[in-house]
Amino acid sequence: IISKRNRRVAGNQSWANVRNLNRYLLSTNNAGLDRIFSGKEIVKATNNFAKSNLLGYGGFGEVFRGNLDDGTTVAVKRAKLGNEKSIYQIVNEVRILCQVSHTNLVKLIGCCIELDIPILVYEFVPNGTLYEHIYGGGSYDPLPWRRRLMIAHQTAQGLDYLHSSATPPIYHRDVKSSNILLDENLDVKVADFGLSRLGVSDVSHVTTCAQGTLGYLDPDYYLNFQLTDKSDVYSFGVVLFELLTSKKPIDFNRDEEDVNLVVFVRKRLEEGRLRDVIDQVIGKEATEMEMESMMALGFLAERCVKETRQSRPTMKAAANEIESILHGIAYDYEP
């Protein structure tokens, strides 16, 4: 009886969120979405959410490949039925993505609120995630150094747009390599805004319970519950370490004191041994100028993951520095 009651309460809360989404779309003239999809269109596009179309899944729900009647391939995200947190994240993602437009942010095409749970429809990004390219175990060719720098720069540009150009500013709150999608040209589309929060103009931080992913979570935010743009900067610094070392943010196969990648690399930096942890795929045959650029990115990453947020650069400053590093190696790649 208690279990049934709990499911009924969860269902009522979920529908309250869906109704809120419906009212939001009506009050904002569909909030700038390209389309509001019918349930029939979604079921047809995904072949009734066939397992063969499943692209990925997680705490948020599932993502399916879909084909619209006009031939457009899309990604369809479905929340978990009865999971209040999952449905809230879907609703939150609509609110966030309706307010942004940037070449390095995934585009939300539309949504559907006719089915049992809300559905989001995104542009299809065909080349997987940065995580898969770094740790895919042969699924993809290793990323060359210049491409890694370009991915870092494009990610920084997308996050800088959220922090500096969106009004009010937007804090992503879950920056990680598995939320960085790569298109057919290996260009970046930052994704998954389910945990994102709107900032408040003229206020330095938002007070909120710490959420994010282990290994990427800003310790200052975790301890003080004060979310700022610098929380994203910390997570971005961890991604830079991943690009540089091809090592996971948390890995219990490393020595106990080196389980955390930030601690592991910071120690090598203090010892003057950063070269020792650079991924051999990019480091083994690097030119002198390329090696200098790898060191420069490592030092930037270390500043991004400083313990206190005041010591970290802004995303704009990080983007500008990576652009400068890219320019520094440009002639190495000239024919």
TrEMBL record:
Keywords for this protein: ATP-binding, Glycoprotein, Kinase, Membrane, Nucleotide-binding, Receptor, Serine/threonine-protein kinase, Signal, Transferase, Transmembrane, Transmembrane helix
Pfam assignment, any one: PK_Tyr_Ser-Thr
Residues binding ATP, per UniProt: 77
Subcellular location: Membrane
Residue span, Protein kinase domain: 49-326
A GO molecular function held by the record: protein serine/threonine kinase activity
Chief localisation class: membrane
Membrane topology: Single-pass membrane protein
Domain of life according to the entry: Eukaryota
One GO location term (cellular component): plasma membrane
SUPFAM superfamilies cross-referenced by the UniProt entry: Protein kinase-like (PK-like)
Protein family per UniProt: Belongs to the protein kinase superfamily.
Protein's UniProt name: Wall-associated receptor kinase-like 15
Organism: Noccaea caerulescens (Alpine penny-cress)
Lineage of origin: Eukaryota, Viridiplantae, Streptophyta, Embryophyta, Tracheophyta
